[in-house]
Amino acid sequence: MDILYSLPGLLVAIVFHEFAHGYIAYLLGDDTAKNAGRLTLNPIKHIDVVGFLCMLVFRFGWAKSVPINPSKFKNRKRDTVLVSIAGVTTNFITAIICAFILKYAPITNETVYMMILIALWYNVMLGVFNLIPLPPLDGSKVVASLLPTKWEYYFYKYERYFYFVLVLLIVTNTTSKIIGPIIEFILAFIIKIIS
């Protein structure tokens, strides 16, 4: 039942996140995602089956990354930052919408209520998690784009080694200890907004 409750919220969080990346990139001149058929809210286009199952069962997983070609941007560094934060921003906006629904909509069905509540949590969690400045997460692209060009080159050159750091943090539960309080703070902040 927990998995069934989680399914809609997880799909919403992932699909909206990935769609936002592709859509903002398209607005900024990069049609790579559009040509790859990723400017859609169809979950099948965004879901990596293994990553999705891992997220449902282990609360950690991944989706198919939206293809982006920064060379098509007019301002590569600025536009890369905008595209990178688009997914996170969409997650936080979706979380606020979920909170408003829970607060003001006359929901009498407990199952529907739980699904929206879990969707709220997943969106906040995914938004915060992606802000971690380690590849392949969105936060790393923001940090890289803010670095001087020379340092940015070395960041991308050695980024594959940072993957191991991220995996180590996840396996040792360090990420939960770091982002857990941040998630709780943002949830409390959203609740305060709607109240």
Task: State the main characteristics.
74% helix, mainly alpha, 195 residues
Overall spatial form? globular
The largest sheet, given as strand count, sense and whether it forms a barrel, is: none
Radius of gyration: 17 Å
Roughly how many Å apart are the termini?
30 Å
**Number of continuous helical runs:** 10
Ranges where pLDDT stays below 50 over 5 or more residues in a row are none
What would the average pLDDT be, to the nearest integer?
Answer: 91
* Residues in β-strands, percent: under 5%
What does this structure look like?
This protein is mostly helical and about 200 residues long. It has one domain (about 1-195). It has helices at about 1-25, 30-35, 45, 50-60, 75-105, 110-130, 140-145, 150-155, 160-170, 175-195. The longest helix is centred in the middle third of the chain and has 29 residues, at about 75-105. It is globular, with a radius of gyration of 17 Å. The chain starts with a helix and ends with a helix.
Walk me through the topology.
Elements: H1 2-27, H2 32-35, H3 43-46, H4 49-58, H5 76-104, H6 110-129, H7 138-146, H8 149-157, H9 159-171, H10 174-194
Give me a quick take on this structure.
74% of the residues lie in helices and 0% in strands. It is an all-alpha fold and 195 residues long. The longest helix is centred in the middle third of the chain and has 29 residues, at 76-104.
